[in-house]
Amino acid sequence: GCQGDSDQTKAIELKLAHNLPLEHPVHLSLAEFARLVEEKSSEEIKVKIYPNAQLGSEREVIELTQTGAVDLAKVSASQLEGFESDYSIFSLPYIFEDYETYEKVMNNEKVTDKLYNQTEDIGFIALTYYNAGQRHLYTKDREVHDVNDMRGLKVRVQPSQTSVQMINAFGGIPTAMDYGEVYTAIQSGVIDAAENNETALVGNNHGEVAKYFMYTGHQIVPDMFIMNATKFNQLSDDHQQVIKEAAQESTLYHEDVWAKTIEEQTEIAKDEMGVNFIEVDKTPFIDAVQPLHEQFAKDEKTKEIYQLIQEAKQDE
Amino acid sequence: MNKAKKWVDKLLLSLSSLLIIAMVVLSIWQVVARYVLSIPSPATEEITRFMLIWFGLLAASYVFGAKKHIAILFFREKFAAKTQISIERITDTLVILVASILMVYGGIKVVMLTIAQTAPATGISMAFVYMSLPLSGLFIIFYTIHGMLTNKIKENQEVGV
Amino acid sequence: MMAIAGTILFISFILLLLVGAPIAIAIILSSVITFFTVLPFDVALMTSAQRMITGIDNFTMLAIPLFVLAGIIMNNGGIAFRLVNFAKVLVGKLPGSLAHTNAVGNMLFGSIAGSSVAAAAAMGRIMGPMQEKQGYKKTYSAAVNIASAPTGLIIPPSSVVIVYSLVSGGTSVAALFMAGYIPGILWGIAVMIVAYFMAKKENYPVSTLPSIKDILYIIGSAIPSLFLIVIVIGGIVAGIFTATEGAAVAVLYSTILAIIYKGLKWRDIPAILKETIEITGMILFLITSSALFSLVMSYLGLPEAISNALLSITENQIGILLIMILILLLVGTFMDITPAVLIFTPIFLPVAETFGMDPVHFGMILCFALCIGNMTPPVGSALFVGASVANVRIEQVIGTLIPYFVAVIIVLLLVTFIPQLSLFLPNLFNL
Ligand code: NA
Ligand code: NA
């Protein structure tokens, strides 16, 4: 459908890239964003979505957004670490003690003003965040109730120094491997455990091989919705407002979609895969990573955002 | 000029050889680390990946000098020898265009963009990784000009894997 | 606009191929030109430059140079010769026995090396003179060698399959490796059946089998080479190591073996590395340029448009599969396998998935169809190398190749329409 819409050539087309399949909750929320933008701008702005990593991995897509080949992208905050050190704060385990704290901070304007606009000089800004769940620990056949139960546990970690230090602090043995190999690695016993949100059990079939899921909630890493800065600044004030509103509304929309997904997937994992879900006392885990907190509070690159988040937690 | 080519050949071969040997050693180290020593190595994997990029582009430049990039010569060979040389000049010019505009100019622009960007596991600046593109572009330009000056018809292979 | 850009992409690509530009350069240049039509100059250049780096920024990709290196070490280390002797014991009693030995030798050698070129060269050099001595026609021996050399691209390990795994969004390499055994062996058997009838017609002699003692010795000396398959493929399938690590283990193992067999000396190493650098420099450059081509296609929405066009011709699953196979066979005749896999997977795989096809099964069909091009003119690696080591001209051998070509296409149809041929082994190993 490339020809024949000459009356709409005035419409601005924004290209939006992400790496998830069409049925994923994030895609639904991005589609909602697209719908809202078109509606609010009276069809003056159109959004074309490239799902499924069609334009590349998240890292590649961030770079495309920097250069302006892509206008909008959904990427994990952890992927942004390499571009802006502020984003590494999300890797710090228990920077948010629980989900409520996380929501409070993510909606604090002092935090978002700094975080969202910080990257303008490298070519992009953030418009909003999407809830991407809490990361928990899951094991092949070992129950973990306390941080002591993690001693000697071989855990797959994400390729970041902070994640390695976190597992070390818990007393486990961090093991690096590609996420795609986790299933076979748990099955063959190369690793004892991995960590991710509930969707890994069903979406990646890890529930077939990992039977214990502990609610450790050690990291809460949002997805960020970013936009090419030049493109945003070129828009009229009205259009900028449209984009911002649509982004925020889609974040709220996403809260519901995400909550429903987690609930459904947890049910499937429990009933069809026989995964046991276990509540744990987070306090000993939080205590274990205090040295990491001190490190982040001292480091030149992270101390400002660390302080800002601590203050936001106290704000009313 | 021929001396220079020999020198560049030697440089590229030595660098690529060192890189591939290092990649073999690091990959085996990764297995050993996982099973025997229980040491995590996200950094090993990242370094190995960056070595592969450098290896791939340096080796590719070398192949331009060795004239072993595959091409389809079936149609070109239907022409008279003189015409073939003219066509050869055209393709040489195209190679130089790609190497200079895309690899060198575009590559340097990307290097500038990525200076502040760091790799997640090692913290290496991504500019260091992207540097491989303009550099190999320069080698390719050198080889192609050398080939044009020595004025022999290029015998690109038609053979792949 | 997109339609115009798409036309520019394909027309400039084909023109550049026709004038004999290196294929990688044709791919890059047509992609960049196309980007210029939809993006500002600098953005187009930066985007393309970035993709040329990220296109090879992948740990699994490292398996390709490492398997090539392992293959070259084996080729230099006296391993090929031991495999030929072993093959002779297996098929020595068939009419045209040396031709069968050649075919089985290619399958065995390919099953550890993974390059049709290396296999065709190694086997052609060893088998050609033996066959000539027994009065085989040169074209006959060359045809068998050429037709069976590509089996090594289907029987694991296989770099073609690794490329497919990457471009299809991470289909398990282990599953694809296991999937390749039956189709690859069937390809070899099809070649042997044709060779059998041709040999009968020509009354080629049957070899005499060596004594039991010699047979045992031959088997014994082939076991260490064959054991490589167990370690590498077994290790990958069992999840003990990744494809890349398995390839590194193959390098280590073949080096040790070559040293023990005294085939490998210090002074051979530079030549081995040089050959590896030449082959992999070419392949990696093709891979990264094809990554750019794929990006341009996705950016223009071409895979989707082509899938929709295909589905509008017919909704019949068999019909669509046949059309895709026909296109792949045509592409394979003139294009190298690696870029073809990179370019056609994103176009065809989504179509196959719309009717619920397993990506492992589809990968097998795609790789198999493209590998057939390896033995056909105008561009075919196995054809060129096989003809050159046999000292025959390409035109001379083409006629003899036709029945093999037909037989292999029949196998392709079996692989396409009997999913179990590809999926039985991966399922058996829970992959
Ligand atoms: Na193989
Ligand atoms: Na061909």
Please explain how this structure is put together.
The complex is a heterotrimer of chains A (316), B (161) and C (431). Chain A has 13 helices and eleven strands. The N terminus of chain A is likely disordered. A five-stranded mixed β-sheet of chain A has the order 2-1-3-10-4, with helices on both faces. Chain A is of the alpha/beta class. Chain B is elongated. Chain B has one domain. Chain B is built from five helices and no strands. Chain C has two domains: 55 residues, no CATH class; 371 residues, no CATH class. Chain C is globular and about 70 Å long. Classes of the chains: A alpha/beta (316), B mainly alpha (161), C mainly alpha (431). Chains B and C meet through helix 1, helix 2 and helix 3 of B and helix 1, helix 2, helix 3, helix 4 and helix 13 of C. Bound molecules: sodium ion (NA) (2 copies). One sodium ion (NA) binds next to helix 6 of chain C.
Strand segment count of chain C: 0
Largest sheet of chain C: none
Radius of gyration of chain A: 20 Å
Proportion in β-strands of chain A: 15-25%
Number of strands of chain A: 11
For the termini of chain A, the CA-CA separation is: 51 Å
Helices and strands of chain A, in order, run as: EHEHEHHHEEEHEHEHEEHHEHHH
Q: Looking at the structure, what is the overall shape of chain C? A: globular
The percentage helix of chain A is 40-55%
Q: Strand pairing plus helix content of chain A: what structural class?
A: alpha/beta
Q: Low-confidence spans of chain A: pLDDT under 50, at least 5 residues?
A: 1-8
H and E string of chain C: HHHHHHHHHHHHHHHHHHHHH
The proportion of residues in beta strands of chain C is: under 5%
Between the first and last Cα atoms of chain C, what is the distance in angstroms?
43 Å
Structural class assignment of chain C: mainly alpha
Largest sheet of chain A, in brief, is: 5 strands, mixed
What's the number of helices of chain C?
21
* Major protein interface: B-C, 62 and 69 residues
DSSP summary: helix tally of chain A: 13
The whole-number mean of residue pLDDT values of chain C reads: 89
What percent of residues of chain C adopt helix (DSSP H or I)? over 70%
